[in-house]
Structure formats: C-alpha cells, structure tokens
C-alpha cells in the first residue's frame, strides 16, 4: 500500500520534473545543434569516423562520463558510463556518413565535394541527440540522486559495417537492462517496426591471367566465375521464399580487356524478415558462389562484411515511448523552414504530407525494408525505438534531401525532439522498476526461446576498410 | 635373291588376277545391289538393325563363313570368319540408318515415312560393299589356296552408338593384322584424313517437384541445374583450345510449366582432333555439370553414350589403297544418272563439281569434322581407309540427297568401286607380307608409344536404347 | 405490403421445398455417380473431351434442354438451355482431364495407363454435379412453374486451354444474370477466394541448322535464343512486383546434338493477383523473348495459349451459398471410406485433418495460387463459387490421390454435396429477385469501373492442340 | 644503258656509304640511349605522353625538322618533315606506356610505382630508334644532296587508343610513298607477320536506380543489361568463325549493393585475322548489347574506342629490309648482360633460346595474336616492318620482364639495331626508285582492290581519356 502511494507521489513529482526538463533542454539545444553541424561537416564514412567520435567523447568526458575506447578492436567505437548499480540503461549513438551523398544544406542538389560522403541518413543528428540525452540525464540523476547506471554507446559503421556486433562481442553491452535507440525520420513517434535481417559479403574469385588473344585457353577467368555465380543467383530467385531480397554489384570486373582476369569481386546483400530463414538462403548463395568457381576452375573466397538481425519490437517500451513522445510533441517550422520544406518537396512529387511533422504518430507493427545492426542488440536486450522528424515529410533516408535537412535547422529541431523523448523515457525507466520488468517480460515473450547468435564468425575481424574496393 | 624372283613372279600373277577379278566383280554386282537396296528399305537405326544384320549374316553363312553373334552383348553385332593362319585381314561393315532422314530415291525432298529414319550416310552400301568384298575374296582365296584368315565385322550403331568399342572390348578384334575400312562419299580414293575424337553423354538432373505457383520455394528445379550447366559451358568456350567443338540439345526440359521440373536431360557431344586434349576438356565439362547441380541443389548423373578416337592414318596402307584404286577407277553416269545428278545439284548450289566422280583422288592428310568409332580401331590395329563416290559430287553426308543416292544406281555404282578397292588391297596384303610389315611399322610410328585406352568404362553396357529419349 | 407477404410465403414454401429437394436428390444420385465414373474412365484432356461432352449433352437433351454446339469453334463446348425470361441463371461444368495423372481408384500410386491422363482435378465430378443440378432444377421449375431461364455451360479445357474465353467471345454468355460455379476440393463451403491472373504462351524460336562440328558458324541456334530468353527472365525476377510467378519448361530443346538446332520451344506461364499488373509483366517477358531472338539472330514467334483473370469474389452470393451449404451439410465416410482416407493420408504426411470433410467452412477472402478461366467469367457477370469435399482432407488437386478419390465413392459423395448447394442457391435466385439485384450491386462495387477485356486477341483461334508438343 | 651503269655505280657507292653509316651510328648511339631512358622514366600512358612527345619534338626541331603539332585533335601527335619532292618516306615512332607495368630495370619483379604504368612494350625504344634513324638520314641526305622528303610520325596511344587513325584521318599521311615501321621484340629481322584486326568499344548501360530492398521492381538494372549482354556473347562464341577472339571486362558493375545500378560499363575487344569478317562479328556483338538493353529495359550506348586492321605484309619491302638487316647483324651481350638475361629467363621457364638475339631471322608469313594501328597504315601505303631484339629471347611483350629490358642496355642495343635497319632501308628507297615501285606493286597485289575504310566514324573524337574508367 505504502509503495503504491510512494510511486504515485513519484509519478506526480516526475510529471513536474518532465515539464521542467523539456524547458531546460530547449535552452541547452543550441550547443548540441553546433555539435551536430560539426559532425555533418566531418562527414566520415563507417569505421573512419575519427573526428566525429573524438568530438562526442570529449563532450562526454567533459560532462564527467568515464570513457572506454577503443572497443573490440574498433578505433572509433567507445562507451561512456556514469553512475552505478541497477538499472543499467543504455543509449546508442551513431555518427557515420554515406559515400556519394555530399550535399550542402540547400533545397536543391548541390554536392560540397563531388562524389564525396554526406550525412544522408542523419547520423550526425543521431549521435548528437543521444549525447544531448545522456548529458541531460546525468545532470538530472546527479541532482536527484537517482540510482542506476547510464551508459552511452558510440556505435560506428551502422551503414553496412556492423559496428555494434563487434562491440557486443567484446562484452561492451554486458549487464544492460534496457537499450534506448532512435533514428532520424520524416515523422515523430515510438516505433514498433521491424526491419529486414541481412547478411552481406564480398565474394572474391581468383583465376589465372593469360593474354586474351594469344592464349585464352591458358587462362582461367575470375570474371567467368563471378558471372556464373551471378547467373546462378538469378535462377535461385524463383525458388526462395517471397520477401527475400538479394542484390549485388560487381566491384571488380577485371583489369583490362586483353588480359584474362585473374581477379574479380562481387559485393552482395541478402535480406529476409527472419534471420533463420535467411540462414537457409545464405547457404544456397554460397553454393552458387562455389558453383561459379567450380565451373570456371577458379578459387572463391568469401569475406563476410556485415550481418544484422531484424529488429525485435518491444510492446511495453513502445507504449512508454509513445506516452513520453506525446509530452514532447512534434516539430514546428518557421516561415523560412516552411519555404525550404516546400522547395524540397517539389523534388519528390507525390510523397508525404507537409504538416505531419507536427504530429506524433502511434506505434505500428510492420517492417521496413531497411536493415540495421541495432537489430542484433534488440535480440540481446529489451530495446526501445523512436523516430523524430529530422527530415521534411516525404524525404526518404539515403537521399540528398535528407543530407540537406540534416545540416540545417529542420534537422536540428527533430534532433531535439529525439533527445527529449529519450530523456523522458529514461527518467521513467530509472524511477519505475516495473517498466524495466515489463520490458524484459515482453522481450522474452517475443523472442520465444530463440537464442541469439551473431552471424559474424568468432574470429572475424571488424571490416575496418569495407568502404574501400580492393 | 630367290625370294625376290618369286615375289616378282607373284606380282605379275597378281596383276593378271586383279584384272580378272575386276571383271568378275562387275558380273556379280547386281546381286549386291539388291542386298544394299533391301537394307536401304529396312532403314534401321543404331542397335535396332535386326533385319539388316540378319540379311548380311545369312549371305555370309551361305558363302561358307563361320558366324559368331551376338558380340559383347550387342544383338546386331557379329563376325564372320573364313580361312586360317596369318595374316588376319579384317573388313568392317556398317548398316545403321539415321533418324529423320527417310527419303525416297528421287532427286527432290520426299520422305517415305514422315520423320522416319533413312540411310543418309549410305551405310546400306557400306555393309554391302564389305560383304561383296568378303565373299569375293573368300572365293579367290579358296581358288588360289591363299593362306590367311579373312574376317568380316558386322559393326552396328556407328552413328553415335559406338558399336565397334563393345566388339573390341569383347576381344572380337584380337589377332587382327590389318583392318580395311571404307566410307560412302562424293569422291573416290584412298583416305589419309583424320577425324575428330569425340565423347558424348547424357547429363540428367534430378530435382524436387513442387507446384510452381503455390510453392516454388519448395521445389528444386532440375531444369535450373541444366540451364546453369549450359551457360557455364558457354563461358568455357573462350578458355579451351581452338578446334574444340561442344554442342548439345535439351532432350527433356521439364514436363509441364506449372510444376517445378524434377527431371531434365541434356545430350552433349564434345570433340577435338586429339583424344588426350579432349580428355582435359571433358573434365571441365563435368565440372560445369556438377556446378549446375551444386547451384540448384539438384543431383546430376552422367551417362556416357559414345566415345571415338580420331582416326590414325597409315601412310603405307594409304599408298597401297591408292595404287589399287587407280586400277579400279571411278564412277561413270548414264544419261539418266547425269540428269538425276544435275537435279540434285540444283538443291545444293555452289558445291562440288559434277564429273569428279570419274576420278580417283590422291590421299591427303587433314581432318574432317566427323567422328567415327573406326577411330578407336585405328589406334589398335593398322587400318586402311578408302572412299567411293556413292553420292553425287557436292552431296554431304547426313542429307536427304545422300539418302536418295544411296537407294539408286549411283549409290550402287560407288559401292562396287569400294568393294573392288577392298578386294584388290586385301589381295596384296594376303600375298605380300612386306605390306603387312610396313603397315605395322607406320602404325607404331604414328602412335608413338601412345597406349590406346577406351574411354568407355569397363562396366559400361552398350547403350542399346540410345536412340530413345527418356 | 402484399409483395412482402407473398415473398414471405414463398420463403416458407421454399424452406419446405429445399428439404424435399435434398431428399429427392439423394435418391437420384446413383445415376450421376455412374455418369461421373464414365467421364473419369474417358479421361480426356483439354479440347479432346469428345466422349465426355457427348455424354453430358445426351443427358441434358434427354431431360428436355435445348442443346447448342459447337460454340466459338470449339467442338467440345456446348450450352443447354431450358425455360425463358428473366432471371437467366448459368451453371458451369468442366470435364477435362490432366496429362500424366492416370490413376486407378485405389489408395496407392497405380496408373491405369503409364503416363496417360487422369482426372487429378476431379472435373469428371465437376461437370456431372452441374448436370445433376441442372436437371434437378429444370424438374423443379417445370413442376412449380418457375419463371426464368436455366442454362448449362459445357466448358472444355479449363486446365490451361481457356475454353470459357472462346465461349464468352462467341456471345454464349450474353444475357446471363448470375453464374454458379463450383470446384472439387478437400473441404465444403462457399468460396470468397480469388485466384491468380495468368497468361501463358509458347515461345518458338526458328534458327538455321548446320553441322555442329563442321560449320557451327553457319548455324543460328534456336536453342541459344531460347536459353538467352530464359536467362533474361531470371534477371527479370528481381525487378517485378512480389507475388508474381513466372515458370517455364523447354518443350523442344533441339533435335540432335550434332545439328545446330533450327527449332526450339518454351512453354511459359506468368501469374499475378492482378491482371493489369500482369499485363505490364507480360510486356517485359515479351522483351526478354525478343532479346533472345535478337542476340542469337533467330526468329521468335509467340503463340498465346491461355489467359485467365483472377476470380472476382461476390460477397452477397457467397453469403447466399454459405446459407444453403449449411442446409446441405458435409460428407460422412463409411468405415471402408475412412480406411481408404487413412491410407491416402499416410502418403501425404502433415497435411489436413481427417473429419473436416463433415463440416461446412465459412467463406474467407484471400487468394489461391491456382488460375482458372472462371476468373474471366467473374469479371463479366456476378459469379457464385462453392467447394465440396470430393477429396480426402489434405489431398491437393493435381495429384494421383485426387485422381483416385475422383473415381470412387468419396468423390461421388462430395459431388452430391456440390449439386445440392448449386440447386438450393439457384432456387433462391429464381424466386427472390433481391438476391440477383444484390449480386449485381456487389459485382459493380468490386470491379469499381474496371472494364473487362479478354487477353485473347480477337482473331486468336482456340488452341485445340495445346496439349500436343510440336 | 646509261641508266643501268649509273645505277650500278650508285649501288657501289651506297655499299661504302652503308658501312660508314653503321660505324657513325655506333658512335652516336649513347645520346639516343639517354633519350630512350628518359621516356622510359616518363612512362606516360596513351594520349597522356606529354613529356615524351615534347622530348622527341625538341630533338627533331634541333636537327632542323619542321614540326607540325597537334595533329587531328591529338595533343601528343606530331609530324616532323625534312627535304622536299619525291619519294616521300615515312618513319613512325610510338612512345606510350602500359598501365600496371611499372618495373625497375632489374631482373626480378620490382615496380617503381606500385600499380603505375611502365614501358612493357618497349615503346620508349620504338620512338627513339625512329628518331635516331630520322636524324641520321637527314644528315646523310643533306651531305649527299639526296632528293626526296623524309617524314617522322610521332604516333601516340598505339596501345588501344588508335592514334595513327586520327592522324591519317587528318590527312597527315597524304603523299607518302613508303612507310617504315619497327617493333621491339626478342629477335631481329624483317617481318612478314600479319596481326589481328581489332575493334574495341565501351558498352554503357543506363537504367533506373531504386532502393534494392524497398522497391527493386521500381528499378531497371543497368548491370542486368550488361550481364545479359555478356551471357549472350558467350552463346555467340560457338557460332562465329574459328580464330575469333572476344574478350571483355566489367569496368563499372554498379555503385553499391543496396541500390539497383543505374549505370554499368563493359570494355570489350573483338579480333579476327580479317577485318571484313570482323565487321560481321561486330554486328552480332552489337545485337547482343542491344538484346541486353531490350531485356532489361535499360538504354545502351556504345563508344568505339579503337579499331585496327590486320597488318598487310609487303613482300618486296620485306626482302629489302632482310637484306639490310643482314648487314646490320644482331645483338651481342656483355658478361653482365648475359647474366641479366639468364636471371630473367629463369622467371620464364621453357621459352625462347638464349643466343638467338645474335642472329637475324628470315621473314616469315603468319600472324601474331597482337593488334596494332600500324595495320591501318599498311592498308593505305606500302609498309615495311622490322623487329629488333630489345628483349631477352623468350620475353613476351606486355610483361614486367620486357619493361625491365627496355630500361637497360639490352633494350638500348636492340634499339640501335632497329635504327640501323631503318636507315639502310631508307637509303635504298631514296636512291633506288625501282624499290619504291616494287613496294607499290606488291601493295596493290596484296590488297587486291580492297578499299581501306577506317572503322572509326567520321565524327568520332579521339578517345583522349580512354585510359580512365568512368
């Protein structure tokens, strides 16, 4: 009885706290806007985020967090911890850019560096909102003597490099109770969406060079091996489950036409809503690759590049985030931002609805066609997910339009929404043990006994150079 | 000294004999014309030559030959022997027809049975000329008390069935000193031409049926396996020696579109002027077949259908045949035959030269793009080869035009030329041991220590039904 | 007011009628069991159903129907009409067998004729139940002076031949108000399921023959054209909407390996839940076929074989059928039938549930992966559909198990269920104009203005020989 | 009569001249050795030979030649002329390096710049020997008042860029009587060898990008177009004349696996001993490319990169060169060079015979599997060709071994042999009009009325950036 009363009192207290917190965060947001802009300018691709991670680490160190870096052999991975005891609440932050998406913060296509990288997925905002949330929470915990441990995870190379997998393998997530994640989007709200499990690899064929006119029969063409593999995969498409995705490019198709190619490389992704089903499909892709080598008398080597589980949603965490997001509210544009948004939308006719950035959407199940290494974390620990409207409604990720938004005030406003959502949700988790318990119960129910196992081999080194073509 | 005198005397004697022999054969030729016409009408395909082989056997039996049949598990194979002791001279005769070449003996396309078989390679003449020669020689040997053994080989299924290989494997050729062979053609003369070594096989893929609309992912397509094999072979073409030939058809490409095919079959030939080189190419074809099965998760089985060495020419035998063919001379047309020939030639514009059938061509090295199981025999024993103009000049084998010629007087005249050439050459071999010795010496020189080994596995049964598609 | 009273009276009358009707039908069922068995024994494939259609026509003629035949150039298509005026109610009946499914009426695989056709889709029952219903209804209409026209449609070649399309094109369905259809199944009930729209065709490639060893460069391979088309289609699979199905077999892959094939043929089906989407996919398949011809310098001809729309369900007709099927009830097995069913089920482990044949399932939306030319009719006229458990639960169509059931008492019991369902539903339609009106309203709502257009070209002749391979 | 006497006197004079000339050239050779070494160090690839061409131009300008540059829009092409009137004798010089063949002048694999270009075909020697010959001839013409015009052709980008074709198209060769050419080799002698006619092009496919997981059906894959083209070409191989060569690499196979590639590029060479035959093959390659675009709904553009005729040998010029090369003699190694040569040969077991560099080989017909734009010139004007042993016997062109030789004394000694051969031959041509007449007569006889026509379209710009991949 007494407990209930106390909790009710705490709840009342918290409600006041939350309102104050939102006001306080508004006043602190300009600093984090600057941090996000710097990382936007760094625009560093996966595993090369040296300046970006240094900036985040220095902010956290200055705020009093204990930094650990590197993690699991990844120079740009780090953790920052504050507090002690239970619960252990984790906030994840990403900061890698995408190749080819260099773009100025203007509503028309204008690369800063032709062909250079850019923040087309808004990860400059992602890492910075998480930083903002972490520092804000630490101040609140210190001020209110809140028990528990807060951890920030600096997670590199989300875009195909699988940074979180190497951090988890190194034990960096041990002891965590609940993980909080978010992602830039064109809408606000708690997320229940799943994603596609993915495995990606580079398939390398090694043949025997020969003069292609003088002695083609003395050569063994690595390109032939790759072509036969590719065509075998096309035949495979008919005989695998619906909703599978297999897509590949040829990253090396031979050096010069007059030499039988002794080297060729394919970079391939395979995806499916379920990892165990994907495992079976992957076995068959491997057979196609081996068949290419067999038929062409070449040698094939596969280098696993990335792997990610589909996201396991969590019902009670989604409900909690939803409740808090409704306190936070959406994004309101100034006249100039409205004009920017309208100009952007003209480049994407027929998509989204301007104005929806002001709303908070209810959580909905379903799955997106994207993949993320946050998926793996969601099969290890209860994970909350939220979206914030950092992009003009209708702007898809991995576009120059999203890169433009991520570098100006629209992106920064969305970032503040995200940071607020994370903070309010963490406040609940730190002060209401029942929320953590419910999150864990939902986690167990959803995974239904399935034991997570990383698809990355135990001795596999992080592909620190996966953004380079051999 | 004395030997020389005797041999000179023998030579003189023989010259008289030969002239008489040619006259005698002219008088006996009508009977053999009728035999050849009957076999032309039987038109039985490989390993099904029941009536044809029965007719030949009955002729030989009646002439006093000792018949042995069947040979090596082949019902239509037989040998017929006469005489005893050395030398042992073999004459080979074929009598199988070709599917789809049914044709009346008229100079325009007119099948007797639509889609039925016909003697498009003139084997009705082949077996009968050899019969004619054998019976004639036996009479001469008996009359002149010639020492030695004469053997007739009834060799079925030359057109892709490899009958001679199973006869040789059964030991039927043991003890032979020299083999005489001939083939219908559009010219006369001793032959020094080689042929292409060949290996042929049926590749069968076994998958798993499934409803192609309801559950394509539950099926494993045998047709996919075959298609991937086929395409792998196309890639192979660039990286094998020039002059290789690989050609295939799909003899079973699935039963019905709405079922994932659980069975598919490819019938493939590979050829090259050299058998050891072909062995290497064959290994790589097998890899393509295995790759097809691997990539499609199906099972592949290969059934070897046929194999033949390239022909090993024999210089001294060619010289001997050439000498005798000049005694025999070519073919002269009547006015009606000339008219028939001219009509035929209009269907084959730009080929050959009418009149050349009257000449005897000198032996020339080179190689034809055909393959024959006589090739294997030529690597086991010294083998003579000759051609006779059974076809109008310019008419290629395996055409309706050659089937037409083989059924009328032009074919029969060429057949008599062949029979005469065989007889005169055998007379020399029976009476002049030096010719046999020279033939053997040339044989050893040409094969240069290479040990013949049949490409048919020891336990492989004759493909008696190779003309049926499964 | 008066009308309502009359209708209420009619309804009461009808309820009595229906009970009597079901009893009467039980007593007449043996005769129709014999008819179905005869057609089962005829086992005639599409467009060759001469004896089957004659038998049905003679039954209908004897019952007083006016027969019209042939229809639209199809010898085995016919209509049988009775009565006059509105409404016009159509009942469709099929009677074609499937190649390769010859099977005795025993619970183990035992073909009557090896490789011969059999009633693996139960169309012997389909046509006969419709006959049974038509004759029963006619008697009832005559006895009760029911106004309206009853038409029986003898629709051949449902299995890939598209018989109904040619009948519709010839105007045979003009004036129909509602169409009643049913299909053998392993359960009973009204059907709301849609099906897959389908287009099928034979793609024929014409090249230039040449000796494959002597002059491969003089040949143009029809098989190459087909192989390139096939491979191109495999590449297509990635870039077409999910739920598409494309499946093909090679019905002619060349005559003999030593000839460059001058003819090759592929038989291909394409399917999708929506015909307009399928139209777009079909255009792209055609481009693949043209690409095969272009790259191989061969000529391609497409012969459209079949086309069928997805079924357009009708809500109010489904409700009406459901109501009547609940009066009819399911199928009860004797001890021997139960034993037969159990033996059958052992050959199909893990499927269906024995006993469910006694129930009547509620109508459910969704779509099956089958295709049927009834789909076209459903886009032209309101169409009711029902299933009856002619097959042991768990037995899929197009299996030897279904062919076995279709030839014995289990199949015949299901057939009676179907006939009863058709009769009771037609009685409602003939006596209650509101039912017809409601059916038409639902029809208009579902098709939403889409104008049906047959995918068969106006001048396309029925493919009367589509079951023969060229 | 008088003419003959004068010519005889001239011949005697010339014999003395030639001996003196060879001695004089030996004394001047060190300077040209230095020039060749500088160009070897520049190692500039096709159309980028800025420093190399500048060096050659400055040497020729200083010697009194009139320089014309650029030619036909090619910055590194030039001509240098001296003298006037007839005959007009041309000497061609090349100076482009090969990508990837950077190599120090040592007998083991040691790149100077990893992956950088190198003179693996000895063109640093080629251009310099021609320079040496031109300057020497000019001095001799001036000293002896020899009538006629001497022209030096600085011909860039022989290795796949077709520099000579653009120079000829610009009219730079107009008026030439005889062209002298040579090439570095591993032996000395006049050359009668032909080469392979070649056409090369980049095939570019343009599709439509789409997210490969979210909307693969919205994309049109440029890579699919390219893959289908490639596969179609593999099928083509069976049905084109023997001795054809088709070889390709994929220079752009898509940007990233998660995007449907909207761009892909193949770089393809086709070759055959006869240009008219190659024309026919090229038409069929184009069809394969169009088929790839058709089947994948992408757009294909071909950019012709290079084209070269097979070399037309000239009998009388070959005899003349042969006569002079016998005066010149071969290359003698020092002990150190011998040791260098032996070390090199250990890296190429089983090739060539050390010592043969001292001999002069007689001219022999046949064809090499290389291709050169000198082929086009040989179909426009009578062309002499000679080889000199700049490479250790057994060293093939386009190898690191040849790049090593080209940078040290062995290469330079061979270069002097070539320069001498060119000089003596030109002396004959300038002083004996009958030699020019005979060369022209042979030219007419060999080309037999065939009218040369460049395979480069009239409006085609030189592919100055062909060494860059897009």
Task: Provide structural commentary.
Four copies of one chain form a homotetramer. With 470 residues, chain A is of the alpha/beta class. Helices cover 42% and strands 17% of the residues of chain A. Chain A is built from twelve helices and eleven strands. Chain A has a seven-stranded mixed β-sheet with strand order 1-2-4-3-5-11-6, sandwiched between helices. Chain A has a four-stranded antiparallel β-sheet with strand order 8-9-7-10. In chain A, helix 3 links the parallel strand 3 and strand 4 (148-154). In chain A, helix 1 runs antiparallel to helix 3, helix 3 (123-144) packs parallel to helix 11 (409-431) and helix 7 packs across helix 11. Chain A is globular, with a radius of gyration of 24 Å. Chain A starts with a helix and ends in a 23-residue tail after the last helix. The interface between A and D is large, with 42 and 42 residues.
**Tally of extended strands of chain A?**
11
**Oligomer class:** homotetramer
Q: What is the alpha-carbon Rg of chain A in Å?
A: 24 Å
- Gross morphology of chain A is globular
Tell me the span between the first and last alpha carbons of chain A. Answer: 67 Å
Order of helices and strands of chain A: HHEEEHEHEEEHEEHEHHHEHHH
Taking strands numbered 1, 2, ... along the chain, how are they ordered across the largest sheet of chain A?
A: 1-2-4-3-5-11-6
Keywords:
homotetramer, about 475 residues, alpha/beta, seven-stranded mixed beta sheet, four-stranded antiparallel beta sheet, 12 helices, 11 strands, about 15% strand, globular, disordered N terminus
